[in-house]
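Checked the freezer inventory, then went back to the computational side. Two predictions to log before the end of the day. The first one is the construct we discussed on Monday; recording sequence and tokens without edits.
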Amino acid sequence: MGNSSIPTVDLSPFFNEEGDEHGRRKATETLAKACSEYGFFQIMNHGMPTDLMNKALQLSKTFFQYPPEEKLKSSPGSGAPLPAGYSKQPDHSPDKNEYLLVFPPGSSFNVYPENPPELRSAIEEVFSHLVRVGSLLESIINDCLGLPQNFLREYNHDRSWDFMAALHYFPATERETNGITEHEDGNCFTFVFQDEVGGLEVHKDGEWIPIVPAEGKIVVNLSDVIQVLSNKRFKSATHRVVRSKGRSRYSFAFFYNLHGDKWVEPLPQFTTEIGESPKYRGFLYKDYQQLRMRNKTHPPSRPEDVIHITHYAIDT
């Protein structure tokens, strides 16, 4: 088990109206190094109040402590690209959690619980904050990759497929501690904030590094879309959640996503323009998301049959 910590990026220079060029340059350099070496980092001074993060965690904890029949009143409807509303992992799944999934505020797919009454407004406020932080981070990543100004923003301008989950991981048993099996996320990048129990771990250099919870900080992991676009210049982070004995874990995960109709392939800036071969064949994003969803709904009996981004890898 590794004991090194992940890099921390201070975003305050980007909120400074006077323009802290030195601070911005330092943050951008730290972020670029983290994206190429880890695919994982945490951000501070990101603009979302710590009180709001704690309030959202507490309200979600209240919801998850309700009896099953109360939670099931918020079961997903049909037609959404992912099951918006309350769901619990099937018993045969190796992942041991339940979650409340939402799309952007105002989405017709959303199914909110009536209780606790303040949960919906807290979730919508967190969601709106994280969209803004996501837009900022996208522009920094754009600069880190040396892409034309606003390239990623114009490529990924539709925010309707962003989603967020409030999660509850059940206490570990004597025989099993897995919360979420090791994986990479399929979207652009993901924000996570967790309660004091922790359990999130990132894989680097053959070791699992625990992400120690730090109040007010948000963990960021790069995901498959950025890895493919950059032709593996930036890493999609392998991570997992390990459960604690006798303690539930509560967290929020926000997925800065891509519209399903978008085509994803290595950009020419990282292939033809520099004489490198593409490491992935192109794909329609919703096709990949459907394959990943099937991993969850119909878990393969053999771990090697789980679909990852390697499904589109080109052997070189």
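The second is the one RB wanted added to the comparison set:
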Amino acid sequence: MYRNVKYIIDKYGNHPAFYRYKTKTGSSLPMFYVYDSYITGPEHWASLLTTSGSRSIRNSPYDALFIALLVEDKHKYDILQSGFNGIYTYFATNGFTYGSSYENWAKIKLFCDHFQLLFIPSVGPGYIDTSIRPWNTQNTRNRINGKYYETALNLALQAHPSVISITSFNEWHEGTQIERAVPKRTSKRVYLDYRPHKPGLYLELTRKWSEKYSKERATYALERQQPVS
């Protein structure tokens, strides 16, 4: 992990498109989302992510914001012990995990606020992965012509999150893409499109809710003296 972070920052860190998040202290740090972070024990993460760790990355040129995946409720305290800077929920299926269940976002946000962690709920336009996992029909979530996406975005905003992540831009095989889509069929697959709506429906919805989030976030960030970028 250390080698990967070092490589990424050394190679791309000065590029104008390299994302950095402005912290409360005024620092602009890279942000790394760590998928399946719970598989590695907190004592191993702590060696890298805490200031007293044996291979600490903190207060070095490679310091960054590391965001852990929250799957089960019990993972919260492992994430805290590990030295992560925040929590994200990743999955686009409401109800699939504790973290991806909308009804739990307010509680997760309270936990993050208490321990000064970033809370990053993940929203998606729907979910269908039966082309690669035919047995997984119970986790299919219909897009309902954009209503599923807007419901998720609305509930994410209500939690006053630090950031909102989107799952995903172009993960077609799990049916979570929001990029422009036109009808397409191959011998093995029919690709989902957004008819009767325009090909750019989900990009338009993303812009609409991004603008709403930016305005609301600026308001509550000002109230709590939090950064707005």
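For RB: The longest helix spans residues 201-224. Helices lie at 2-12, 42-49, 75-82, 105-114, 147-158, 201-224. Let me know if you want it refolded.
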